[in-house]
Amino acid sequence: MQPNRFRSSSLSHLGGLAAITVLASLAGCAVGPDYREPSVPNADQFLGQRAVEDRRSVLRADLEVWWEAFGDPQLTRYVRLALDQNLDLAAASARVTQARAGLRSATAALLPSGGVSAQAAKQYQSVETPLGRVLNATPNYDRHGSLYEADLTAGWEIDVFGGLRREREAAQAEYQASEAGLAATRVEIAAQAADTYVTIRGLQVRLSIAQQQLATQQKLVSTVNLLYNKGLAAALEVQQAEGALAQVEATIPELESGLEAAQNALDVLLGSSPGTYRAELADIKAIPSAPRIEATGTPADLLRRRPDLIVAERRLAASNARIGAAIAEYYPKVSLSGLLGSATTVASGNLFSAGANQAAGVAGLRWRLFDFGRIGAQIALAQGQEAEALASYRLAVLRASEDVENAFTALVKREEQTKTLERGELSLRQARNSSFVAYEKGVVRLIEVLLADENLLKTSDAKAQAEAQSARAAIASFRALGGGWQAVPMSPGGA
To answer: pTM of the predicted model, to two decimals?
Structure first.
């Protein structure tokens, strides 16, 4: 019965040591600085907020699904396809899975580990080795040997000074950053899909304007040639008309090239090969109108709404926790391990009997007493990384505000430009028609008609560009405001 007394005594001492260590761990606190979210100075409102909120539009946007407010079902469909099929989103989702696994691993490091082991071994001892000669000289020595053993093992590193807890804090913050990174990618992909679609529609309208102007110029060339053949026009006028026709023709290949590139970009955003959705976009449609942006919020709201800022803040929290994990290396590591099992050299009947029982308990201590130079360097490295993360976070906040201000300004100014160009286009169209009629009657020279055509083409093209840029500025505003996902507080718990 002696082995049983040994086992009871060992387990009793092991349990007492575990209780003392757990109490010390619970009573102590983790070394290193506790994280506090940095304060960032913010204005009460954006500089361009009043002008954006005063815009007039029958379309009103919900920030979470802003793409629906453009009133274009095809735009909405492509944004949703991008959010379902985009490969950048798939990669971001995979990064979340990796970070979640890292958090689980860091959480598991705080908990005991256990295992089961068993073995059966047979041995035939040589008598030509030094050990074999000694054993062979023993009376009744049997060269055949057997061992049967089954054990339960357990181990636990007690986190007395909080190094493992700091590592878990860092892993949790990285996991939260990866979740916010997925949301940031979602915002970006939705905006890119909508922006590319508007670009396609803008190029189609510009191409249509150029083709209409081409037909007008061809008609003018025919008229001038007819007059020239009757002796009513000079050769110079024919050459001027043909030169103007060539100028318009030269703009079409450039627009067609840009249109194909934009269509290919949209296909890739939707996770498809170039050309997949080209047939659906063949019909020319109006450029979507920019909706009204009502819930702009304040600069302070960006800190909670924009996921890229949440990514920067969570990475700052992770770098802060790593300082504590580095400082914890100054202190000793305490561990407990134990074994409970049975071992015998007899195959039948003796395994798990009282005489075959075995137990062991070990309390371990590891302390890097003569390695403080390396630990100090690791702490300095962690502190430098935390300082870098803090600067990156503050810069991200400033750039986020800059994005909003620039998008608001572009939206308001582009809409003003569109209205001005609309008035100019109407006047120039009337002037062009009047000059052509006057030329046919011989009242004005051909050069006046050509100038009127050139001005009308430039103004119509500029108006189409301004309309597209207005819609794109609205998209940029939604992206800058962090629209396209639902901002929720980061949960303090693990995965």
So the answer is: 0.82
Contact 82, 194 (CB under 8 A): no
| Per-residue pLDDT tens digits of the chain, which is 495 residues long | 344 433 344 344 444 444 444 444 444 578 999 999 998 888 888 888 888 888 877 677 778 899 999 999 999 999 999 999 999 999 999 999 999 999 999 999 888 999 998 888 888 888 888 888 888 888 887 788 888 888 899 999 898 999 999 999 999 999 999 999 999 999 999 999 999 999 999 999 999 999 988 988 898 888 888 888 888 788 888 898 899 889 989 999 999 999 999 999 999 999 999 999 999 999 999 999 998 887 777 888 888 889 999 999 999 999 999 999 999 999 998 999 999 988 888 766 678 887 788 999 999 988 887 876 898 999 999 999 999 999 999 999 999 999 999 999 999 999 999 999 999 999 999 998 898 888 878 888 888 888 888 888 889 999 999 999 999 999 999 999 998 877 555 544 444
Domains in the chain (CATH in brackets) are 1-29+113-158+333-366 (2.20.200.10), 31-110+159-331+372-480 (1.20.1600.10)
